[in-house]
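During the second year of the project, the team shifted from modelling isolated chains to modelling whole assemblies. The rationale, set out in the original proposal, was that interfaces cannot be judged from single-chain predictions alone. As a representative example for this report, we include one of the complexes processed in the last quarter. Its constituent sequences, exactly as entered into the pipeline, are reproduced here:
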Amino acid sequence: MLTAAALLAGTVLLFVYGYLSSPNPKPPASPSAARPDASLLTRSPELSSADPASAASAPPATTAQSPLEAAIDRVLALLERRAATPADLADLKAALLAADPAQSLAAIRAFLRSGRDALTGQGFALGAGGLLTGSPTLRVLLLDTLGQIARGARSPAAAEVAREILAEKTSADEWALALRNLAWTDPQARPFLRDKVREMLRTEPWLSAPSAGMLEALDVVVFTRDATLIPDLDAARTAGGELAHATDIALDRLAETAPLDVLTWLNTHPRTLDDRPFLRADYFAKADIAQGAQRAQIEIYLGRPDITAAEKSKLLNALTTPASFVSETLLSTPAAPDDGTARRAALERVTADWLKTDRFPLLRESLFETRQRLAP
Amino acid sequence: MLSRLLIAALALSSSALAQTALAPQPTPPEFVQAMPFSLIGKLVFSQGDDWFQGTGTVIRPAGVLTAAHNLWDANRGFSTDVFFQRALAGEASEGTARASRVYVFGGYRDSARRGTSSDPRAFAQDLGIVLFPQPLAAGAAAGWWANPSLLLTAAPTLALGYGAATHDGTRLLSVATQEAFGAVTGSFFVNGSVFYESGMSGGPLFARSAGGELLIAGIIVAGAEDGPGGGIRVLDAAAAQFIRNYAR
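Output from the structure prediction step:
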């Protein structure tokens, strides 16, 4: 029967693609560019011998520039002449990470306060642990570095800078880093993060032309585990294109991270996602049916008269084959590797119970099929 | 004006390629039984109310590597009822297994739906893993190498999959490249000397190591006959990490 069904079905579409109109990356910086003075990119004897306690004090209120501030200025000058190499940026970051945290934080904050900036020619690229592997501007690079340093040093500096940046809508990429840094360094910030990501999702210039940072910032929704952001994701989805995709992924991950909250929210707001029934079924399929409260939400869903049989069938099928998106993210933790065995065992027990008690008489056939799917 | 000229140039190049690109051809049954090709299989899956087919390869004892767009659709969500028919040749196969877990390599900016379906970035992260409750080939798995530079030489590579556009979807098709791949964007590479048939999506692209071993170096993700060549999602460092973390 399977073979017949498959043959009737046709095939996955392959696509005609117009790659000649592919994106237009910025030209790389000249490899022959002059290198900054290496002495400015390494720890000075003065800094390396600094007492950590005294380094925590505020920088002197003079116009004298620290070696690290000079190093940042030097890279800025190279970028403005389009003469910086990726190594220049990497060296600056390495120097800031290697120096005394208080001195680095002070140098970065001084530069950020100046309002100066330059494009790097890089894209906004995420690596492991929410760290950037590419920064579109010098300020974004410094914000990334600031977060790393402040997190390691347990300094409030990154959170303070973040709140300053989040007070004005100047750059979505900077907001993304500010949100990440705040989440890293202020454990009490979740409600504030929720409000700010909601604000982001309602900011029209950012919705119509979302930057890479804007898209990655949707991971903050997952981090907050706050199901009340669902309508904001849903509304932002109407912008279409990449933002629609990003909101779909964010909602999927939110459901995976906070299944009970999301399922409860969806059951109490029944019109939500009714234009995307199969995606809604996928979100319900994140439930761990071995957990009583989550099982109860699944039972409410399966009993809802407004949900079609096809959507319920999709849920039951999806429960037998849990599915997850995996990638590097700004804040949230990727799905842990598992083979689905535990969930399948729980589903087997629960479906047996439902059939025994005839809990869902209209779904008897689908439930029998589900049990067949679970058979070894 | 420039756009029109570009479109015209594209049309001409596509037409020329369609005349010269090699088409995938059926392999004999004994080929399908030989290692590592016997580790390839047909993927059959449901998306919403429809059934589709693609291709995958056993890359860990109970894990199959395939294309993400076999496993998730923007409107219908994750595929369900995912079956793997290993070493299928006509009506014979080494068995059919039902998947128990799916992982799609895709973030907020990366998926088979990025931009539009004609955007090359759509294919740059087109990778997924399907897990099964039991080993699929008595513990055997195909070798792989995340080394994009393998594909930038003229050394031939071999793409395989269960094409179902001009073939019936039950025969393993193969086609060898006649020239080097070119990087289009990110991890999406194209080769103008071949095209891939619908249904081959997710199938392996084998390259030879210096030691002569056939290793998977990419996954078929695009490349219809009227396109500019066969498109693959090359295995790179990110893909390697994904495989190591999630295949088993």
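Chain B has two domains: 14-31+142-236, 32-131. Chain B touches chain A through 81 residues (CB under 8 Å).
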